[in-house]
Amino acid sequence: MTATTQPFALPRTFEPRPVVVIARKVIREASRDRWFWLNCAGFAVLAGAITLTAVPDHNLIGSGGFGRTAASLVALVQLVVPLMALTLGARYLSGERDSGTLVFLLCHPVSRTEVLVGTYIGLAGSMFASVATGFGAAGVFSALRSASADPVLLVRLAMLSWLLSLAMLGLGLVIGSIARNASTGLGMALFAWLAVVFLGDLGVMGTVVATHMPVEALFAAVIVNPVEAFRLASVVALDGSLDALGPVGTYAFDRFGDGMAYIALGVMAAWTAGAVAAAVFTFRIGDRI
Amino acid sequence: MATRTALTGMLFAGALVVATVPVDPATAHGTAATDLQDLINAAVPGDVLTLTPGTYAGGVTVDKPLSLVGEGWPVIDGHGEGSVITVTAPDVTIEGLVIANSGNRLDREHSGITSDLSPRLRIIGNRFENVLFGMFLRHAHDAEIVGNEIGGKDLFIARRGDGIRIWQSTDVLVEGNDVANGRDSVFWFADGATVRNNHVEDGRYGLHFMYSHGAVVEGNVLERNSVGAFLMYSTDLTMTGNVFRSNRGPSGYGLGLKDVDGLTVSGNRFVENRVGLYVDNSPSKVDLYHRIESNVFAFNDIGALLGSTVARNVFTGNAFIDNVTQVASDSTGNLLDNEWSHEGVGNHWSDFAGYDADGDGIGDIAYEIDNLFMDLIGRYPEMAFFTGTPAARAVDMASQTFPSLRPEPILTDDSPLIRIPTLPMSPLAVESASRALLFLVSLGLLGAASAVMAGGRFRLSDPLGGGGAS
Fold this sequence. Notes:
The complex is a heterodimer.
Chain A: H1 16-32, H2 34-54, H3 58-61, H4 66-99, H5 101-107, H6 112-145, H7 151-178, H8 182-211, H9 215-223, H10 226-239, H11 246-256, H12 259-285
Chain B: E1 17-20, H1 25-31, H2 36-42, E2 48-51, E3 55-57, E4 60-62, E5 67-70, E6 75-77, E7 85-87, E8 93-95, E9 98-100, E10 111-115, E11 122-124, E12 127-131, E13 133-138, E14 144-146, E15 149-152, E16 164-167, E17 173-175, E18 178-180, E19 184-188, E20 194-196, E21 199-201, E22 205-210, E23 216-218, E24 221-223, E25 227-232, E26 235-240, E27 243-245, E28 253-258, E29 261-266, E30 269-271, E31 275-280, E32 290-293, E33 296-298, E34 302-306, E35 313-316, E36 319-321, E37 325-329, E38 348-349, E39 367-369, H3 372-379, H4 390-401, E40 411-413, H5 435-455
Parallel strand pairs in B: 2-5, 3-6, 4-7, 5-8, 6-9, 7-10, 8-11, 9-12, 10-13, 11-14, 12-15, 13-16, 14-17, 15-18, 16-19, 17-20, 18-21, 19-22, 20-23, 21-24, 22-25, 23-26, 24-27, 25-28, 26-29, 27-30, 28-31, 29-32, 30-33, 31-34, 32-35, 33-36, 34-37, 36-38
Antiparallel strand pairs in B: 1-2, 39-40
């Protein structure tokens, strides 16, 4: 089991047990954290409100219109989930450091890698809970209120949102491991949120206006953004194509077809893996505890 | 004429034919007709050939006024060669048959039923299976095509034939047909057609009118085609009470209009299309106005898309509900040459942010579309890739906040309707099958969420870092 006899031996093998223990500790703490519950409730209320208000009289329309509700949910996720995940990741590590619990934890026979991976898994579990709560609430309201909605689609969107949150959580942990204290971490997380949600797209838009860049370059510039990868994967899940997104969408779907969804998933997975690896690296080399 | 029923006993692929014909017994028993073509050849004009269940060889030609009536779905099988039934005579009726397996040469227009010089042709209640073209009628004035089911070949869409193609035929009635997996349903030079209560799905152009004047199109459901209906170069058309749903694809429209003069579009539903209504150069005559009245445009990517030079369309009493873009111009121009309210009755806009202080049901301020992001798309079409992103919203918000960035409005409705106008019930059944399942799945998500959160709360059996073995 763990190397209790040599607590400070580095490098130390990576073992699953402390990781699980730390992950559970993180989830337990999240369930006591009022910010977490506020996030959770806020997302659920917004998702429920979208479902309630976006579905007009379906007898008039002859359609449940869940496609539009789902599109609104996607827009909500784009805004809210990166914000939640980035701030959660950034706040957690730097907060632990501020309160001294990180020092206490690292006194135990656990490696920094185990602490970080355990923290990541625990936060990922909490994010799963809040995403599932939001989509669950939206689904319940939709079932009570409107007539038709595809449950498979609901679960798919929930999973895509969670994937997005995994990538954002990784980034959050990178920030948390380099930020000096919790408030710096929070500020950096907010800036990162601004960058992935707004500035990236606005930058590409500006480039389009300035240079009329070719569609291939535009597509490549957009898809590397995990938030955009999430959006494109969701649009494919909703519409089965990207026709709604003009010439670039048509190009992307003609070029990659159903592979489009895998590209988007791959981008989110790559961000997740890259961010967690970077967080492990920055956390391990960090002298600060 | 003395008529009696004779049982023409014959076995052809297990089929038995009962012909209600004026029969010369000597002929009937002497030559012993062996296939459908022989029966047709043997019949005299005005005969009713009643076919019993079984399979008959296709590739037949009906060259005299006859009725072919099936009982118990006899199959006319073209065996993948040519057209199954060719009609070259007036007053032919084809009813109750399964017409299957035409050839698949597009250049030869291999069809279930093909006809020429066949006025008053009646095609009633047949099933078309695996045919390239369903029916291709030429010079079939006053034809009636009623209650048929037409299923095309499983081919790439441009390789398929048309479910229904009418050529140079006036006053045709097309009613209650179900057309699936075809290419188009085309009316070429077919004046005075009545197209009513048909269901066309999964094709390219659900209905396509070329140079066909005076058609009445009502109560049809056109869904999941590339284009629901495209009307081109035709005049005096009436589109009433149709449903255009989920017609998508890169150039997908619910209803497309090109060079149409004289048109009424009322009581239709445009739902979940890429573009609900697309108007290109219609009306083209300067003294004509088109009324687009009491339609619902809901959940489309673009509710109505008009060419920037389009003028003289009068939109009144329509409901624009939750379209990603309610109305757009296809380039940079505005749409102010059209009327967006008529005699004090505008349209309902789900994103109208005004008020109705005097309670007369008409908004007290005008509804305007002056969307900077749409304006950008007009100039840089690639920008459509960002539709619906927070960044696109930020662009719009910036233009609302800083008037110097705000583009000229593309339309102004002076009398927006506060409430959705009352419309007849939708002919579409509301799908409710997945409701219970959705409820369960949603509860499952909530359950999974609480399970994860509860997972952290279990008291651990051993302290941090300490294994059971230590």
